[in-house]
Amino acid sequence: MKAYAVNFILVCMLIAAGASASCKRRLLPLPPLALGLVEYSDQVNGYRIGYPTGWIVEPKTDKVGVSFTSRSENIHPGGRTMFTVTRSSSTATPDLQKVITHLKSDYAAKYPDFTIVNESAILIGGYSGRKIVYTHTVNGRMVQLVQAFVNTDGNTYIIVAGTAPQNYAAFEPTLDSVFQSFGVTK
Question: What contacts 63, CB < 8 A, 6 or more positions away?
């Protein structure tokens, strides 16, 4: 099965994030990595996150993101899975609930079978954020995705993860460990 992750495009245009250069950043201590996660550090975008051992790491050509993809369906009990991390910065910190509302509207118009599974507040590596879990069809295949957004003193980070809906429950504990490994480094 070919990874739909390769074809998945982040909707970073939804985010206008940031704060003035005069804001002093308050960094939280970096959380420990869970067993089975390998550290990925992005010094340019100022974050650290863990990813499962054996996964393929692909920095984005736009230099603001990275993708992590399982090599095969046998590496993770959830089947072929992926997640990406992107940083967006600008001159204003977005209201994350408005971002989610815009995403829902945009995706409902783009994907006729777009269905929200849940949306809620989330704590990502000690930072408050919002997440939305949803399903829709990509290239003829149903996928279940989660998008999590977190504002951290001048930046908004977006973590997007997905797999087939029937595999999501098996992938969720790994995804939770990945979310909790996130930390801002600068």
Answer: 44, 45
- The model carries a pTM of 0.78
> Going residue by residue through the chain (186 aa), what tens digit of pLDDT does each one get?
333 332 222 223 222 233 333 334 567 888 888 888 999 999 888 899 999 988 889 887 776 788 888 865 544 444 567 888 888 766 567 888 888 999 999 999 999 999 999 999 999 988 899 999 999 998 888 899 999 999 887 788 999 998 889 888 888 898 899 999 999 888
Find where tokens 């050509």 sit: 61
- Say if residues 117 and 134 touch (Cβ distance below 8 Å): yes
Separation between Cα atoms, residue 116 and residue 112, nearest integer Å: 12
Q: Are 163 and 78 in contact (CB under 8 A)?
A: yes
Helix, coil or strand: residue 15 = coil
Asked if 156 and 89 touch (Cβ cutoff 8 Å), the reply is yes
> Half-sphere exposure (CA, 13 Å, Cβ side) for 136?
18
CA nearest 156: which of 45, 40, 22? 45
110: CB partners within 8 A, 6+ apart: none
Residue pair 158/88 in contact by the 8 Å Cβ criterion: yes
